[in-house]
Specification:
The structure is a single chain. This protein is mostly helical. The protein has a domain of about 70 residues: 434 Repressor (Amino-terminal Domain) (Orthogonal Bundle), CATH 1.10.260. It has five helices and no strands. α2 crosses α4, α3 packs across α4 and α3 crosses α5. It is elongated.
Length: about 100
């Protein structure tokens, strides 16, 4: 079977668009993507629990506009606030894992 030399991986795309891992532009992209993932996870769990943004905000002592900003804009969020949203608002818990870095071959 012939390999198509025009096919690139997503990692290749990120390298060409934002630079290799470790570059300033790539670090900024990666940080933004992590904020986006947190917002998406919060929204997904909120919807699964059939809560409105107002209801979630009330349960964790924040404002609807803040919940909306986290879900839609990937806003920076303090760890203490994230814990309140996840634990008090969504009934979950935060687990932090530090995966080992992959070593280049």
């Amino acid at each position: 079977m012939k390999k198509n030399k025009n096919i690139t991986t997503f990692e290749d795309h990120l390298d060409s668009r934002y630079g290799k891992k470790g570059s300033e532009a790539r670090a900024a992209f990666d940080a933004g993507f992590e904020r986006f993932k947190i917002g998406a996870l919060i929204e997904q769990q909120r919807l699964q629990l059939q809560l409105t943004q107002d209801q979630l905000a009330a349960k964790c002592g924040t404002k609807k506009s803040y919940i909306s900003r986290i879900e839609n804009e990937g806003s920076d969020i303090r760890l203490s606030t994230l814990m309140k949203i996840v634990e008090d608002g969504l009934g979950g818990r935060i687990e932090i894992v530090f995966p080992k870095k992959k070593t280049p071959r």
